[in-house]
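Retro notes
What went well: the complex prediction finally ran end to end.
Inputs used:
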Amino acid sequence: MTRTSSAKGHEPRAEEALIAAAQGGDRAAFEALVLPCQNAILRWLTRLTQDRPAAEELFQESLFKAYIALSGFRGESSFATWLSRIARNTFLAWRKALQQRPDTVPMSTGDEELDAALEPADGWSHHPPTPEEQLWQQELAGAIQKSLDALPESLREAFEQREQGGLSYAEIAQLQQVPVGTVRSRIHRAREAIAQDLKHLMEPA
Amino acid sequence: MNSPKLVNLSIQQSWASAFVDGEVDLSEQTGWNETVHEQLYYYTMTRQVLRGEMLRERGAGFHTERTTWVTFWARVDAG
């Protein structure tokens, strides 16, 4: 595979490894592949169907088709793009079936609007958030910033050099003059601290 | 804040974080469990929030996610 970027996905090297493992029947790897793009595709289907339960069903159906077809996936696009194409086709088949039912009330979205939402093929990842989603995004970003502010400086720096600076562990190790294993530990501890705070927000007791 | 002296973690202990960064191989993970799933879930989400990408919905936490997968695998197993 020669891809160098992965929209709404893992680092390319990690994605390739997950694809190979999932093709070998590793279910955890398949789940990990879906994880970064799951919400974006579900949100896209919700927008297309204007019906959340229907979107969830279509997403499950798309996942099922993807799992069955995974052995034929050759990595010519990112996994997320591939899955979004399956979701798009699943949606189109669902819409066609719906329109053939005599008791169907026409979908409130017009065809032109629908076509715009369906194209380009990876348009699923680009539509703007609603005000409510924006507010939630801000809450989460605020929680992450608060977690970062509370971290020891060495952990925060390592995390920011990786996430915001895009540096490799080796480059951070050189900057901080510590072994790579120390960088790996620092970034892990920073992520874990943030995760604990996010959990309280996502799943309040 | 001063950095406390912390012992370095093993690759196993810090695998999920390093994997998200493409710094370790999948083969270095010797056993997926709920902890690894949960770490990947929150670490991926953290990255998406920081990049301004769309994120998990309010209330759609890790445990909700697991329920979705349990349903999915039951369907796969049912053929």
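What we learned: The mean pLDDT of chain B is 85.
What to try next: split runs per interface for comparison.
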